[in-house]
Specification:
The complex is a heterodimer of chains A (186) and B (384). With 186 residues, chain A is of the alpha/beta class. Chain A has one domain (2-184): Pyruvate-ferredoxin Oxidoreductase, domain 3 (3-Layer(aba) Sandwich). Chain A contains 6 helices and 6 strands. Chain A has helices at residues 15-29, 76-82, 115-123, 129-141, 146-156, 162-184, and strands at 2-10, 33-40, 48-56, 70-73, 91-95, 109-113. In chain A, α1 (15-29) packs across α4, α3 packs across α6 and α4 runs parallel beside α6 (162-184). Chain A starts with a strand and ends with a helix. By secondary structure, chain B is α/β, with parallel strands linked by helices. Chain B folds into 3 domains: 11-194, 3-Layer(aba) Sandwich (Rossmann fold), CATH 3.40.50; 207-272, no CATH class; 275-383, 3-Layer(aba) Sandwich (Rossmann fold). Chain B is built from 12 helices and 15 strands. Chain B has helices at residues 16-27, 41-53, 64-76, 87-102, 130-135, 151-168, 178-182, 251-272, 291-306, 324-331, 347-355, 374-383; strands at 11-15, 31-34, 57-60, 81-85, 107-115, 121-125, 144-146, 171-177, 184-188, 275-278, 285-289, 311-316, 318-320, 336-341, 360-365. In chain B, the strands form 3 sheets. In chain B, strands 2, 3, 4, 5, 6, 7, 8 and 13 form an 8-stranded mixed beta sheet that branches. Chain B has a 5-stranded mixed beta sheet with strand order 10-12-11-14-15, with helices on both faces. Classes of the chains: A alpha/beta (186), B alpha/beta (384). The interface between A and B is medium-sized, with 25 and 24 residues. β2 of chain A pairs antiparallel with β9 of chain B, so a sheet runs across the interface.
């Protein structure tokens, strides 16, 4: 098992926290080796933001993602930059609330879900779009167990927001699973 | 700590910077003074929470110069002390690092390297302060420079940094880079009984007989160090001084002091040299790397082996004193040594000096704020 995951979007969307949560789920709760890195500009909000996670059952030497298995795209700019950098057989999970264009892919799948819209309307707070995205990512890829991700979310989110984040996670998970089933059985 | 995961276990996901802070606490650090700067800020942030819980003190000073000065003062009272910064702050601290060297005050200065010169790229990694770490302050001075390449290594190596600093009474520069500082990895926190912690040797003589810079009774290198405020009164100066600590310009005394200070680097060399050998047994091409670049080196060497190239990796955690005898010995056994660095080619100059023309030395440089990739090193390996 060796999986590379890239989460990309805009500063302020919580993607670096999402990367940390995913890494913690894989490393601390599912027991894999894991590395999480990020790249961001000096701005607190608005600049391009990218988090990367590598999950493996053996030693991880190089810490950067070179050929991702799963790419989450949360902004149009991220779509331009990373949309078609995915491994053959990989998955691009795209937030179609923010992204209108679609990358042209050869041998990889695109799953489009209204991630930010789900957070805003179904969960009730746009701020949890990152956790909806994590749920969806686990739903489409099974890269970590839902139980591990649930524990990691609870260990990292602010006190008092546990219920909101669990709701966000489960809605994302459900929508991700459903989208994957539809994708696999046309 | 922000990291609430795995409470009750020793398995944690954390950044290099967090591991640096936790390792420092384990080493016995009870004082931190600093001025926050990207990409080192998390070290200060974490220690501001951790130190008060263990009876230590944290001060955010008005600038970097005040920070290193406070650290020197705290160390003089017998408290293990740390400051952390990045390139611009490291430049400011240089004068006081020289003071710590001549006055023989143990302290550790963390520099989480970012792209320079000047403000450069604050959020991106670099390895361009290698020469500055050795020669940033003026005069012939001893300084040990250590460089980790993983989160787990950061934890254990910062403890070594303090052990070396305490034992030899010298400043130790802990040279991280943004890649290692901000990277999160899973680590197993060692139990405290697995760690070896060294404290400075203190005088046992009558305070009235104390000569603060008399090393003759020990190994001739390191004088015992009294804590300020314990009755051992002595004079401290950045001027060259005799055994009493008072200034001197007498040529034999100046000569003896400068030679004794620098002899620390030679005497300590073997025990402060930390090099990991990976796939070196039958290697005929070697990647010699440190910090974040060693991670790309590890991948490149593994992939080179898959295509039948007998490549090996020497990952050095000690940059200074440069392990020249070690490199010289390797040089006679291999076809080439490849030195990947995120700078214009700094440590490669030391490799060339040590190799003395015995084998080919290839410098690989990258200065675009992205880490050297395994592919770049792999093509160099294939090109030999």
């Amino acid at each position: 098992m060796y999986k590379e995951i890239r989460l990309s979007g805009t500063g302020g969307q919580g993607l670096i926290l999402a990367g940390i949560i995913l890494a913690e789920a894989a490393g601390v709760y599912d027991g894999y080796n894991v590395i999480q890195t990020q790249s961001y500009g000096p701005e607190a909000r608005g600049g391009a933001s990218r988090a990367e996670v590598i999950i493996s059952d053996s030693v991880i030497d190089y810490p950067k993602v070179t050929s991702p298995d799963i790419v989450l795209i949360m902004s149009e700019q991220a779509c331009d930059k990373y949309g078609n950098q995915v491994k053959t057989g990989g998955i691009v999970l795209l937030d179609d609330t923010n992204v209108d264009s679609r990358p042209v892919l050869d041998g990889a799948s695109i799953i489009a879900l209204p991630i930010t819209e789900i957070a805003r309307h179904d969960v009730g707070r746009q701020v949890v779009a990152n956790v909806v995205a994590l749920g969806a990512l686990v739903g489409v890829s099974k890269v970590v167990t839902p139980e591990a991700l649930e524990k990691a979310v609870l260990s990292r989110v602010p006190k008092g927001t546990e219920d909101l984040n669990m709701k966000a996670f489960h809605m994302g998970l459900e929508r991700g699973r459903r989208a994957m089933t539809e994708h696999e059985t046309p | 700590m922000q990291n609430k995961a795995g409470i009750g276990t020793r398995t944690k996901l954390m950044q290099g910077n967090e591991a640096c802070a936790l390792g420092a606490i384990a080493a016995g650090v009870r004082f931190f003074a600093g001025y926050p700067i990207t990409p080192s800020t998390e070290i200060a942030e974490d220690l501001s929470a951790l130190l008060p819980r263990v009876g230590g003190k944290f001060i955010q000073m008005e600038d970097e110069i005040a920070s290193i000065s406070a650290v020197i003062g705290a160390s003089l009272t017998g408290t293990k002390s740390l400051t952390a910064t990045s390139g611009p702050g490291f430049s400011l601290k240089q004068e006081s690092i020289g003071f710590a060297a001549i006055a023989e005050i143990p302290c550790v200065i963390v520099n989480v390297m970012r792209v320079g010169p000047s403000t450069g790229v604050p959020t991106a990694p670099s390895q361009a302060d290698v020469m500055q770490a050795r020669w940033g302050t003026h005069g012939d001075h001893p300084v040990v420079v250590l460089c980790p390449s993983s989160v787990a290594e950061t934890y254990t190596l910062i403890i070594e940094a303090f052990n070396i600093s305490e034992k030899w009474r010298i400043p130790v520069v802990f040279l991280m880079d943004e890649g290692i500082g901000h990277m999160r990895e899973k680590i197993e926190i060692p139990n405290s009984d697995e760690l070896k912690i060294i404290d400075r040797v203190r005088p046992v003589c009558n305070p009235n007989d104390y000569l603060p810079f008399d090393a003759d009774k020990g190994d001739g290198t390191v004088p015992p160090m009294a804590d300020f405020g314990t009755g051992y009164r002595y004079h401290l100066t950045g001027l060259t001084h005799d055994k009493t600590g008072f200034p001197t310009t007498q040529r034999p005394e100046v000569d003896a002091l400068i030679r004794r200070l620098n002899s620390k680097m030679d005497k300590a060399k073997q025990e402060v040299t930390f090099i990991d050998e990976v796939l070196m047994d039958d290697a005929d091409i070697v990647v010699f790397a440190y910090g974040i670049s060693a991670r790309a080196g590890a991948r490149a060497v593994r992939e080179a082996r898959e295509s039948g190239i007998s490549a090996g990796l020497l990952k050095t955690k000690t940059l200074w004193p440069f392990p020249d005898e070690y490199v010289e010995e390797i040089a006679s056994q291999v076809k080439a040594i490849i030195v990947p660095e995120m700078n214009m080619g700094q440590l490669v100059l030391e490799v060339e000096r040590a190799v003395k023309g015995r084998t080919k030395v290839i410098s690989l440089t990258r200065v675009d704020a992205e880490p050297i990739s395994p592919d770049e090193i792999l093509s160099a390996l294939k090109g030999v």
